[in-house]
Amino acid sequence: MAATADDTEDHTDTPASSPPPARRRLGPVAMVVSFFGELLITAGLVLALFVAYSLWWTNVVADRTAAKQADEVRDNWAKGSDGDGPVSFDTKDGIGFLHVPAMSGDEILVEKGTSMKVLNDGVAGYYTDPVKAALPTSGKEGNFSLAAHRDGHGAKFHGIHKIEKGDPIVFETKDKWYVYKTFAILPETSKYNVDVLSKIPKESGRKKAGHYITLTTCTPVYTSTYRYIVWGELVRTEKVDSDRTPPEELR
């Protein structure tokens, strides 16, 4: 029997919708866990930003500062404003540039002092304390000891572990190239070991006075627990020509 219109309407009425289920409230333990979870996420983000700042942004800022200072030093050299004599030991300006092909293809400006204020500008600094470095420009025997950051703030000695015995280390001044040859490496020593800076660094195996260079930085990388040491000995000097042609070790 066919259904009437009224019958169809009776069977197709939309049933009343049921009320939404009540939202379940978190218990005390769950609330604490949720709170600490969000706290850890926030702390992780803050830590990530800090790491990015320490290992990337400080490098950007330091490299800009070092480049500006380097340009000023080279401009002064070109103008002859520093005179014709050797650079003074007590100068506060950059005294020259370090070149270590095995470590980096970049030139590294060398300034006086090893304080954070100096090194944070993305340069290498020569020691004035606790042992005074002997500048090669003085012509005297001794140890030209230097320090630089290994990570952050330019990280100029980041690749120090790539240096091997026999590798050249070149120091450039206004009028001379000082060519050193790596002869000893100390991968780890105490941060308080100042003997590595001595006039005769006996831990390097040398027992007589000479013209030495010492590179120091923190190790392991991204820490400051110990110190990494590289020693070199002067093998020759070359006069800087008008074109500032680098020695063969840098070509």
UniProtKB/TrEMBL annotation:
<dbReference type="GO" id="GO:0016787">
    <property type="term" value="F:hydrolase activity"/>
</dbReference>
<dbReference type="InterPro" id="IPR053465">
    <property type="entry name" value="Sortase_Class_E"/>
</dbReference>
<keyword id="KW-0472">Membrane</keyword>
<dbReference type="InterPro" id="IPR005754">
    <property type="entry name" value="Sortase"/>
</dbReference>
<protein>
    <submittedName>
        <fullName>LPXTG-site transpeptidase (Sortase) family protein</fullName>
    </submittedName>
</protein>
<keyword id="KW-1133">Transmembrane helix</keyword>
<dbReference type="InterPro" id="IPR042003">
    <property type="entry name" value="Sortase_E"/>
</dbReference>
<feature type="compositionally biased region" description="Acidic residues">
    <location>
        <begin position="1"/>
        <end position="10"/>
    </location>
</feature>
<feature type="active site" description="Acyl-thioester intermediate">
    <location>
        <position position="218"/>
    </location>
</feature>
<dbReference type="Pfam" id="PF04203">
    <property type="entry name" value="Sortase"/>
</dbReference>
<keyword id="KW-0378">Hydrolase</keyword>
<feature type="region of interest" description="Disordered">
    <location>
        <begin position="1"/>
        <end position="23"/>
    </location>
</feature>
<dbReference type="InterPro" id="IPR023365">
    <property type="entry name" value="Sortase_dom-sf"/>
</dbReference>
<feature type="active site" description="Proton donor/acceptor">
    <location>
        <position position="149"/>
    </location>
</feature>
<keyword id="KW-0812">Transmembrane</keyword>
<feature type="transmembrane region" description="Helical">
    <location>
        <begin position="29"/>
        <end position="56"/>
    </location>
</feature>
